[in-house]
């Protein structure tokens, strides 16, 4: 088990990495609500989250050409930013979204996506401003509330963050992405048991994806139950996706030499 001080520092970096990834990935969902033009966005042969580095690079080149032809199109711009973010090019994704926001200053979907891109780039105050401007009090959007919560968590306001998550759950009960964010909020504060409770519930919900499962695997791994964490990371996936999840799990836990510590603890527990 990680020592409390190490665990706290590691948890903060871990939460930031996972939440920034989640915020960035959600740009793709925003793009689906944009002003789509038939055939305007190049079709992908698989979801972005299941692409490897080479496939993401190819997708970025393909969508980038469409963006160059029509940089004012919000749907293309948001999709391009999503592909760039998935490929680790967050700064470029933010630059793209800045241009899209300039050309579409009153589009709520664009403002929301821009806010998420700002958060992915660590510009949390600006991100909150953009997301709150996109929100409508009379018909609040649960995705914006959840994104706002993730930003507040990264700004060190867990109480405010959890308030937003619970408001989002009032609108969209049992939504796995919200439950996952709520679980990661407790991880940030070092409360791994509560984090696991929310994440275990999230995994059981219809629509829970690989990212939610990864978060649960990380929380279980941080508690020293490495074998169980690896099984969770690999469950119900293709061999390629399972290996990618396990590799991700290894990379996150190894940041504090946690990998060997957890393997040793797991070995002791099974003897």
Automatic annotation (TrEMBL):
Q: Which SUPFAM superfamilies match?
A: TPR-like
**InterPro entries per the UniProt record, alphabetical:** CellSynth/LPSAsmb/PSIAsmb, TPR-like_helical_dom_sf, TPR_rpt, UCP035836
Q: Where in the sequence is the signal peptide annotated?
A: 1-31
Describe where the TPR repeats fall, as residue ranges on this chain.
Answer: 142-175
Q: Which PROSITE patterns match?
A: PROKAR_LIPOPROTEIN (PS51257), TPR (PS50005)
State the protein's name: Flp pilus assembly protein TadD
Superkingdom of this protein's organism? Bacteria
Record's PANTHER family?
Answer: LIPOPOLYSACCHARIDE ASSEMBLY PROTEIN B, TPR REPEAT-CONTAINING PROTEIN PA4667
Q: Which UniProt keywords apply?
A: Repeat, Signal, TPR repeat
């Amino acid at each position: 088990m990680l020592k409390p001080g190490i665990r706290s520092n590691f948890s903060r970096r871990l939460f930031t990495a996972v939440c920034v990834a989640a915020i960035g990935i959600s740009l793709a969902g925003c793009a689906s609500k944009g002003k789509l033009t038939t055939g305007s966005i190049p079709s992908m042969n698989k979801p972005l989250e299941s692409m490897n580095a080479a496939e993401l690079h190819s997708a970025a080149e393909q969508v980038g050409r469409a963006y160059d032809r029509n940089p004012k199109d919000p749907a293309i711009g948001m999709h391009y930013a999503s592909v760039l973010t998935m490929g680790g090019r967050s700064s470029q994704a933010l630059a793209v979204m800045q241009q899209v926001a300039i050309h579409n200053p009153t589009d709520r979907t664009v403002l929301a996506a821009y806010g998420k891109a700002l958060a992915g780039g660590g510009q949390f105050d600006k991100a909150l401003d953009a997301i709150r401007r996109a929100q409508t009090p009379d018909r609040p959007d649960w995705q914006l509330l959840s994104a706002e919560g993730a930003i507040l968590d990264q700004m060190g306001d867990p109480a405010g963050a959890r308030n937003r998550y619970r408001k989002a759950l009032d609108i969209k009960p049992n939504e796995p992405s919200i439950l996952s964010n709520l679980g990661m909020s407790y991880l940030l504060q070092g409360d791994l048991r509560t984090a696991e409770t929310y994440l275990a519930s999230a995994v059981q919900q219809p629509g829970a994806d690989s990212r939610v499962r990864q978060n649960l695997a990380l929380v279980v791994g941080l508690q020293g139950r490495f074998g169980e964490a690896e099984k969770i990371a690999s469950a119900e996936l293709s061999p390629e996706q399972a290996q990618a999840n396990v590799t991700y799990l290894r990379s996150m836990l190894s940041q504090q030499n946690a990998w060997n510590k957890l393997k040793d603890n797991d070995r002791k527990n099974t003897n």
